[in-house]
Amino acid sequence: MAQFSIYIVEDDPLYGEILEYQLSMNPDYIIRRFNSGSECLKELYKRPDLVTIDYSMPDMNGLTLFKKIRDFNPDLPVVVISGQDDINTAVEFLKMGVTDYLVKDDNVKSKLWNSIIRIRENQSLRQEVAELKEELGRKYEFEKIIKGASPALRKVFTLLEKASNSEINVSLTGETGTGKELAAKAIHYNSNRKKYNFVAVNLAAIPRELIESELFGHEKGAFTGAIARKQGRFEDANKGTLFLDEIAEADLNIQTKLLRVLQERELSRIGGNEIIHFNVRLIVATHKNLEEEVQKGNFREDLYYRILGLPIELPPLRDRGSDVILLANSFIEEACKKNNIRNVLKLSAPAKEKLLKYNFPGNIRELKAIIDLACILCNGDEIIPEDIRFSGTRARLVGWQEDKTMEDYYIDIVQAFLKKYDNNVVLVARKLKIGKSTIYKLINNNKIHLTI
Ligand SMILES: Nc1ncnc2c1ncn2[C@@H]1O[C@H](COP(=O)(O)OP(=O)(O)OP(=O)(O)O)[C@@H](O)[C@H]1O
């Protein structure tokens, strides 16, 4: 067990010594003795784990001292040791929240010993309950922010929890609108860094020539237009989390600078000499396949390994089964509130069917926009299929690329099905109406990689 600090307030030096001697038999107990209440009060800021007080002290009586201790720390256990065997005083103290009331008799040493054991047991139980509550709170928070209950999302929740409980860098992948930024925020706000800043930078949204100054800051006059010193986003995120969205868009020059800064955990602003140390957790996101970008020579391999950390893939909405309806209902509720629609609208059965059949290339962001519009178009209490409008340009084949061959598409499709059905080759073969051996051949020839 950890060390346990006990303050003894006792004006009788002999009695104080006896108590100290008895308690110091336990090597975990760190004892300090005070001859008066005021001396003890001055040292409370050092956060003892327990205070024992004599009922009658020269400078203040036990009751006054106890009230002052309570004002300072309402949770600190206090044991009163009194020369008076007066039941009324004992009851009064106990009602006020004293942990124990002991009478100075021949057995007081062993009674105090047992009382401390009980207090410690209680404290560790309370701590355990608090920890369990916090853990529960965390789960609740994740599920409150990131809505969904599909098996694909459950796997993500497990990883998000691991990420928030640790300090590891995180790399989020997933198609546009799958909730990468939301996941990054959820990690931050469930982590020990939550009291500090969550800073998001979208590298695709900033002109190339400004990225360096945005990330690392600049000194006044560092370049034309630098009219004042500017702190960079790394500094803004100190002790917190820096979310670099669209990391694949960083050019090789920025990649090199990022690598150096991340390796050394220090930076200097453009045009400055001062070395600035920082402490950030990095979360990066991209809708591209970074490994492929490394192979193509577009992304530095050493930087890739430095930022990879814990990779988390956000599944596309079409792989989240009935989460589509769960999310739709939640967005309907939000939209009705926002638009002052009194009765929360319902999704009719054919409307649900229409949503479930769609492939949502824009994922959750697209679903949200579709639902917002449907709530406005809806005439009754129920959303009907006609209220649900898919934008023609978006309902295209996902992943369409001119340089892909028919075989590439074939492989993509089989790979996607294997992922969706947990690598169940027999089931995938049945769904796609192809032979099992065809799939096994693709796996054996390393054309398909089974992912977990
Ligand atoms: N599971 C979810 N529950 C509720 N809302 C969600 C969920 N996932 C995403 N959203 C919402 O969908 C929208 C898009 O999410 P977000 O911006 O996090 O996606 P993204 O993957 O970062 O997109 P992009 O790659 O385009 O930057 C946001 O409004 C977000 O709040």
TrEMBL record:
PROSITE patterns per record: RESPONSE_REGULATORY, SIGMA54_INTERACT_2, SIGMA54_INTERACT_3, SIGMA54_INTERACT_4
Keywords, ordered alphabetically: ATP-binding, DNA-binding, Nucleotide-binding, Phosphoprotein, Transcription, Transcription regulation
Entry-linked SMART domains: AAA, REC
Gene3D superfamilies reported in the protein's UniProt record: 1.10.8.60, 3.40.50.2300, P-loop containing nucleotide triphosphate hydrolases
Boundaries of every Response regulatory domain copy: 5-119
Ranges of residues in domain Sigma-54 factor interaction: 146-376
An example molecular function term from Gene Ontology annotations: ATP binding
Sequence positions bearing 4-aspartylphosphate: D54
A Pfam family it matches: AAA_lid_14
InterPro entries cross-referenced by the UniProt entry: AAA+_ATPase (IPR003593), AAA_lid_NorR (IPR058031), CheY-like_superfamily (IPR011006), P-loop_NTPase (IPR027417), Sig_transdc_resp-reg_receiver (IPR001789), Sigma_54_int (IPR002078), Sigma_54_int_dom_ATP-bd_2 (IPR025943), Sigma_54_int_dom_CS (IPR025944)
GO BP terms: phosphorelay signal transduction system; regulation of DNA-templated transcription
Protein name: DNA-binding transcriptional response regulator, NtrC family, contains REC, AAA-type ATPase, and a Fis-type DNA-binding domains
